[in-house]
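tool=predict chain=A
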Amino acid sequence: MKGHSLRIGDTVKEIQGTIDPQEERGTLRIDGASLEVSFKPLYPGCYRIVLEGRPYTVWVDRQGKAKHICVRGSAFIVEDAARSGASFARRRSIEEGPGEVTPPMPSVVVRVLVNEGDRVEKGQGLLVVTAMKMETTLKAPYAGIVKKINTQPEAKVMPGDILVEIEPEVESHE
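tool=predict ok
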């Protein structure tokens, strides 16, 4: 089994696997747990993955040595932990940002689901974007108040464009 240390956000995962590209299937071992996986490229940058019987549509956008991966509206930056070094600290995924929601790949805004001043829960849909004929709902990384919406329907947006800014909810300990 070939092994890698991958940095996903601030977490490093030890991943080993045997993948048969002809059969489009294999076995992954992630932090010691064994998982069966099958995959099918749908078109460039988009894959249908079945992991332990659960299907996922996965978008992959290569940027330098890192890959931006979007699964079910959540985006992650994944890179080789050995190569990432100190430069990784300056990057972040949608879930780790300070309340800034940005698209995982070049997209077009379809719908804005919230208004400025709305209170949102972690995981609540904020807006819907489309890329390569596939719609993705971008979700709130945590509970808070929508401070600013920097986009509108039909706007063309790119990774790094801050579409929605959220002020985190402060927990009171009374």
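Residues 81-84 form the longest helix (4 residues). Residues 17 and 28 are 4 Å apart (CA to CA).
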